[in-house]
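Review form for a predicted model. The reviewer records the input and the model, then writes brief findings.
Reviewer: anonymous (R2)
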Amino acid sequence: MPSVDIEQPDFCVKCGYDLTGLAERGRCPECGRPFDRTTGEGIRGAEPPKIRGLRMIRRVRTLVLASSAGGVMVVAVVVAWRWPSHAWGIVEFGGFIAGMVLLGAVTSFVYEKDNLPPV
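Model under review:
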């Protein structure tokens, strides 16, 4: 029985774009990073399910943090509306907390893809 050579998909190491079917050397159409199949520079194989799971968890964490910042501000405005004599202090404190949570969301987004094991 003859052996069949099945082409394994290659992905851009920077953005994960599927490079299957493109030339041996070139630039990723998505992010512009150079790749070379002959040396393996700029490409990686398919992500194992564990890595995909870690990426998904990090993405969800970022979305939860961003949503929480909005939720904190909504609660602060509702509480301030209920107690108008303390409105400014409540909204100010709520804004501070929401800002800190939003800073956490931005940090989470920036470092979402860092520190994952190599594929």
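Findings: The two ends are 32 Å apart (CA to CA).
Further findings: Strands lie at 11-12, 25-27, 34-36, 43-44.
Recommendation: see findings above.
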